[in-house]
Fold this protein.
Amino acid sequence: MTVGGDTTRCLIADDQAMVREGFAAVLAAQPGIMVAGQAADGAEAVRLAGRLQPDVVLMDVRMPVMDGLQAAREILSGAANPVKPRVLMLTTFDLDEYVYEALRAGASGFLLKDATAAELVHAVRVVAAGDALLAPSVTRRLIADFSRRPRTDPVPPAALSALTQRETEVLRLIARGLSNAEISDTLVIAEQTTKTHVGRILAKLGLRDRAQAVAVAYESGLITPGGSGPA
């Protein structure tokens, strides 16, 4: 999937040619990043992802033929792609309703379409490294979305019982949008210890990254909007 073992291959999917070309120009100028292809709609993105095997897909939400959410689902669940790329959703402030759905589809993060060149490069590097990109503004929108959803069964699923008390604490803090450094400060533990806890949480729950951990924490009722969740 990589060129020379350390080059991140990107696929850019957006129906606006100027957006694609602008992102491509910025990324192509960066060391260690290669633009493997561009797609003008979701269906083309699915086809190119299967053929090009990119490491990161920058996926617009609103596109013709097939929208970005459906394309992300197909790319991340399709048997045609044994090694799944990281999907970075391109969004705008008026797309609140898509945040949660994109997380459940397996997206590793969100990037505002008016992001600076530096923010774009940072986002690609973060998700390519296997982490999730959840900016505070996106986390706040996710929380607001859950606050509007009626909860009929807030009891955490049985899978969460596999977590230790400390891992449960860490998961709650992840769901609040805290970074590893902030979690370490809050719990007064070493950052390497926090990283270990995060890794164990993801492994026990079968999750790809922190983005999915946030969704699971809220979906299960482990944490609720405006509070720390049930004891």
